[in-house]
Amino acid sequence: MARTELTALFLMFVSSVLGAITTVLVAGCQPPVSMVLPASVVSAAAIAPDVVAESAPKASATNSSKITIDEFVKPETILNEGKEWPQWGGTRVRNNVPNVKNLPEVWDIGKFDRRTGDWDNTKAENLRWYAELGSQTYGNPVVAGGKVFVGTNNGAGYLARYPSKVDLGCLLAFDQKTGDFLWQHSSEKLITGRVHDWPLQGICCAPLVEGERLWFVTSRGEVRCLDTEGFLDNEDDGVVQNEPARVADLMDSGEGSEFEESLGQLNDGKLTDALRTVLADAGSEAGDDISIETLAPNKSWKAKGTFGGVERELAIKQIGPRISIFKSLGVNDKQDADVIWVFNMMDELGVSQHNMCSCSVTTYGDLLFVNTSNGLDESHINLPAPEAPSFICMNKNTGEVLWTDQSPGNNILHGQWSSPSIEVLGGVPQVMFCGGNGILYSFRADAGKDGKPELLWQFDCNPKTSKWVLGGEGTRNNLIATPVAYDGLVYIAVGQDPEHGEGEGHLWCIDPTKRGDVSPQLAVKMEGNQRVPIEHKRIQAVEPEKGEAAIDNPNSAVVWHYSLADQNDDGEIDFEEEMHRSCGTVAIKDDVLYIADFSGLLHCLDAKGTPDGMAIVHFTYDMFAQSWGSPLIADGKVYIGDEDGDVCVFEFGADNKEPIEEINMGSSVYSTPVAADETIFISTKDKLFAIGKSDE
């Protein structure tokens, strides 16, 4: 069985956003020195403190804003219309089953020259358009308001001020009908480097769109609310005004360099040819009449005049080995994002994300739910911020934090990159959060009380005797996938960072109406004739050699569990008869469940199982390449991608065990196909494709 080599960092796509760790570094692209400066609510203001920006109100743990939960778009409304797919999984229940019709089961993207990028469309079929993405893409497309949004890195270099050699996290907006680039949100790399912001990974989550507002989590640990129209509506909306943004840098190349000359000339009130050149290259060509005011000799200046045909005031600063130039974003910056508000989780909550921050947020009324991605440091042992929250609830309109929770505590295994889901279950609105300790938590989806949520239940998705071993060699797992609610039940699979490789997996079906610890087992220690409950432990919950034991939990919420099944009844368990680690999220329709694991197997099961709690496996199909994404069920078909760049298309149904088509997309498909308005949207490693039946 062919197995491709792991080369990328964890994908939060399902995570949407899913995430991954890669050993590929940004050649010649160091994190901006200026980013060492601390950030407040509006982090960019710290880059250029001379440029004043109005910041969002300081968030607090009080419920001072009106919160409504009765006026929201119900999932079934979106499902029935099939015109949009405005968040990861389509709706807050996260079941990727849109009511979209007239989708193709076959297409051809043509051929792309790997060296020049030239497109040969001679054999292209059912392809509406394609757009260039970054060099690595793990974000899932979102379709809303006539636009398609996707997270990636800066490999496409859409903005002149950020050429492709500059490493950024990018959220791109395209026209849904034409694929034309509209605008970009740019997240510069954190100065702390790969421990917090791994090179080349970009934005790994999917955004959430409601009306003309968009929410997402940046690679810098920020929750941001944007205007979906950008500045194309000629308005600067929201609390954040005149947000500072980098225009260009002039690097110090040594004694007698243009850098030293430019410092001297700036002090004399002049722009050198070198500074004019970097400005022109960034699309901000300086006019003839430019005035320079020295604020601090050799350190800080203010430039006024025409730049890029627009009357502006630029901030110029000498920061380490570079002269950096900044502008204030506004209505003249049509290709930049219009920011409504910003909340920096690293600064305000003390969060320390591991390698990246990635969560595809969701809402319930005015409540916004966010996984903070708090995790370990580069040692993979130490937890830098054990008191920082792992899960928070915010007011989506203001960015105010309503409550926080740190349930995983010191037991975070690695990172926390999953995404929450919400559904009314047993008459109670529940928001489900995947803890970094492998435990699935459910909280009441409301504004909480005194800054804290109400915990409804918790479910340990790992066997108590499983063990966490560095590098993925153990049997204890994270939760990378997103929980899915379907017909009153909850579904979740375990997995690890894809760099940790393949391993033992589990898929659970859970009854969410129970309360308390509803795990399959309880951890106890034998003291005489007494079984004494013990606290959860990070590495191994139960160590038999210490007199500890795992006992059946009488309060277990397990409906059924799937780890292996002897499908051919030969008394042996083959590779294809095991559930392996998964980054993927289930998709369910008419009680038929699909999920892909990281070993490249697509599993098809009965969503309800047997009355006595056994899983019913319809079939498994080996794609012979690792699968990072999740299935799409739409228009009587099932679509699933893999790392080799193939998308398998199945006819929907438990009896359809072989794909009707297997279509290569030219590069790896780490994301999940989504569908809206008679079109399939697939982001590959470097391109976004809109696929639909030809009008001919």
UniProtKB/TrEMBL annotation:
PROSITE patterns according to UniProt: PROKAR_LIPOPROTEIN (PS51257)
Location of the Pyrrolo-quinoline quinone repeat domain: 126-228, 550-651
Pfam families documented for this protein: PQQ_2
InterPro entries from the UniProt entry: PQQ_b-propeller_rpt (IPR018391), PQQ_rpt_dom (IPR002372), Quinoprotein_ADH-like_sf (IPR011047), WD40/YVTN_repeat-like_dom_sf (IPR015943)
SMART domains in UniProt: PQQ
Name of this chain's protein: Outer membrane protein assembly factor BamB
The organism's taxonomic lineage, starting at the top: Bacteria, Pseudomonadati, Planctomycetota, Planctomycetia, Pirellulales
